[in-house]
């Protein structure tokens, strides 16, 4: 993925649609080259597969008309939980921490468009598999495309609720498909089907491309979300039998990239803007396209200090230039410490190469315990205890656990996966979001209400639909 150059021709001319960031499905063709003309063999279809991962990377700039994909994901997830906030409590970014997000918020619209860009590029690949004469290779490309489409839809449905279901390449005139919100249950049917196909068609060759274990792990999380616990347990155990292992040193997870714990990550490389990222610089002070976002709340500091063990020292630090504030350190740009002022980096911090981890083995172990807990309040099951204990042992926590409660598991996920965009989804899946976020909001003078669990449908989409597209309650 990172070692291959993305094919600009594919991104700009394979169809009338080049990106959801520019009036999704609306632009007039500006080239005579179409997907039918471009894709003639397996090598060209693979460029289409690589382009899907390019959409996940996002564009490393400050232009909201470009898709930024996972580079913006923390705003919509961590900053809407009790884990992070802005440093200054100002601007559009502060809407997330105060729970007063507007439908016109550019970040909300950008992420929505980014996920549909992934979906569009996946559909392009699926529509052109017929030119691949090797049946095994065609099955592999289909599996990769469906894995990515499923992951994008999983993000969309959890953040926005009912969304349009686009499972094929459509024309600009197909506004009914583009602007018809489909029930989440139907979206989940597609997600499960796509991930099942991915499991059947992939192996575990890659860490920054789709793999069987990645598909199994993501499907396990989907099944947990749907309350299908036995299916989730079997999927976790399949991953656990696939040779992954915890890194002995927690810090190495993030700076010894593509290690034994990584199951799937979005790959980046430093120094080259087309393959680098800016989000880790944004979390610092005075660097990046913005600064002082995704700063650490006192609430999560208490949790990490009391329950994090060895993880705490690697998860956050005092802002060197303002010690009353705290920064995330899991993704220091290129692993540098930024110097005493928190913003002087040897290399350009805005061109960082840190991979973004989507799924790692510790997450699977904790999901395994969650699946065995099966929505109950506690378990003493030996297999659940073993998985749970492995994560705690790596953190240097001395206690041998003899019972796992639902709240203890949620807390363990919080301190293990802090700042990895999991907290909000965990609170919702565990049925604790209302109580936790209401209390956090009251304690910090925020404005949380139940309707804030979903983001608004971007106002731009509603405007383009001429009012046919409905808005989520509360917006």
- Proportion of strand residues: 5-15%
CATH class of the domain at 1-202 and 448-475: Mainly Alpha
N-to-C terminal Cα separation, in Å? 39 Å
- Cα gyration radius (Å): 21 Å
Look up the CATH topology of the domain at 1-202 and 448-475: Serine Threonine Protein Phosphatase 5, Tetratricopeptide repeat
Q: Into which percent range does the helicity of residues fall?
A: 40-55%
Largest sheet: 2 strands, antiparallel
- What structural category arises from helix and sheet content? mainly alpha
Uncertain stretches = 1-33
Placed side by side, the strands forming the largest sheet appear as 1-5
**How many helices in DSSP terms?**
21
Mean pLDDT across residues:
92
Overall strand count: 10
Shape, principal axes of CA atoms: globular
- What is the second-level CATH architecture of the domain at 1-202 and 448-475? Alpha Horseshoe
GO cellular component, one term: cell outer membrane
Keywords: Cell outer membrane, Membrane, Signal
Signal peptide: 1-21
Domain SusD-like N-terminal: 64-224
Can you offer a commentary on this structure?
- The longest helix has 26 residues, at 135-160.
- The chain has helices at residues 8-13, 35-38, 42-57, 73-76, 94-98, 106-127, 135-160, 175-179, 184-201, 212-226, 229-240, 252-255, 279-282, 298-307, 312-315, 361-373, 382-394, 406-416, 423-429, 433-444, 459-464, and strands spanning 84-85, 163-164, 181-182, 262-266, 295-296, 316-319, 322-328, 356-360, 378-379, 404-405.
- Among the domains are: 1-202 and 448-475, Alpha Horseshoe (Serine Threonine Protein Phosphatase 5, Tetratricopeptide repeat); 279-354, no CATH class.
- It is globular and about 60 Å long.
- The strands form 5 sheets. It has a two-stranded antiparallel ribbon with strand order 1-5. It has a two-stranded antiparallel sheet with strand order 2-3. Strands 4-8 form a two-stranded antiparallel ribbon.
- Residues 1-33 have low confidence and may be disordered.
- It is 46% helix and 7% strand.
- It contains 21 helices and 10 strands.
- With 475 residues, the chain is mainly alpha-helical.
């Amino acid at each position: 993925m990172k070692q291959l150059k993305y094919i600009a021709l594919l991104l700009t001319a394979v169809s009338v649609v080049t990106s959801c960031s520019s009036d999704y499905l609306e632009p007039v063709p500006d080239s005579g080259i179409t997907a039918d003309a471009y894709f003639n063999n397996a090598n060209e279809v693979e460029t289409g597969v690589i382009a899907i991962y390019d959409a996940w990377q996002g564009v490393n700039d400050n232009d909201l008309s470009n898709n930024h994909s996972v580079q913006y994901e923390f705003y919509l997830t961590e900053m809407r939980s009790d884990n992070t906030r802005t440093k200054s409590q100002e601007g559009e970014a502060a809407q997330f921490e105060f729970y007063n997000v507007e439908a016109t918020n550019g970040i909300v619209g950008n992420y929505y468009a980014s996920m549909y860009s992934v979906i569009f590029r996946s559909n392009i690949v699926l529509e052109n598999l017929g030119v691949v004469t090797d049946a095994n290779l065609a099955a592999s490309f289909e599996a990769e495309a469906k894995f990515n489409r499923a992951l994008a839809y999983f993000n969309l449905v959890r953040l926005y609720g009912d969304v349009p279901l686009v499972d094929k390449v459509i024309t600009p005139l197909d506004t009914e498909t583009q602007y018809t919100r489909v029930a989440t249950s139907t979206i989940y049917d597609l997600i499960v089907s796509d991930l099942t196909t991915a499991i059947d068609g992939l192996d575990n060759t890659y860490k920054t491309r789709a793999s069987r274990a990645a598909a199994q792990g993501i499907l396990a999380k989907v099944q947990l979300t749907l309350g299908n616990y036995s299916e989730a347990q079997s999927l976790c155990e399949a991953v656990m039998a696939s040779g992954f292992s915890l890194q002995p040193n927690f810090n190495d997870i993030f700076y010894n990239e593509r290690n034994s714990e990584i199951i799937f990550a979005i790959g980046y490389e430093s120094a080259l803007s087309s393959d680098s990222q800016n989000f880790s610089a944004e979390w610092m002070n005075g660097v990046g396209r913005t600064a002082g976002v995704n700063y650490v709340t006192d609430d999560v500091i208490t949790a990490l200090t009391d329950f994090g063990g060895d993880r705490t020292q690697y998860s956050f630090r005092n802002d060197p230039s303002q010690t009353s504030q705290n920064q995330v350190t899991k993704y220091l740009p290129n692993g540098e410490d930024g110097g005493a002022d928190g913003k002087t980096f040897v290399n350009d911090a805005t061109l960082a190469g840190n991979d973004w981890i989507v799924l790692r083995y510790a997450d699977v172990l904790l999901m395994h315990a969650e699946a065995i807990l099966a929505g109950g309040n506690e378990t003493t099951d030996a297999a659940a205890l073993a998985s749970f204990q492995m994560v705690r042992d790596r953190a240097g926590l001395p206690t041998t656990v003899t019972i796992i409660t639902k709240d203890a598991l949620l807390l363990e996920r919080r301190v293990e996966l802090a700042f990895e965009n999991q907290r909000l989804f965990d609170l919702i899946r565990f049925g604790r979001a209302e109580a936790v976020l209401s209390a956090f909001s009251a304690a910090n003078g925020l404005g949380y209400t139940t309707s804030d669990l979903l983001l608004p449908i971007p106002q731009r989409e509603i405007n383009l639909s001429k009012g046919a597209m409905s808005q989520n309650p509360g917006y």
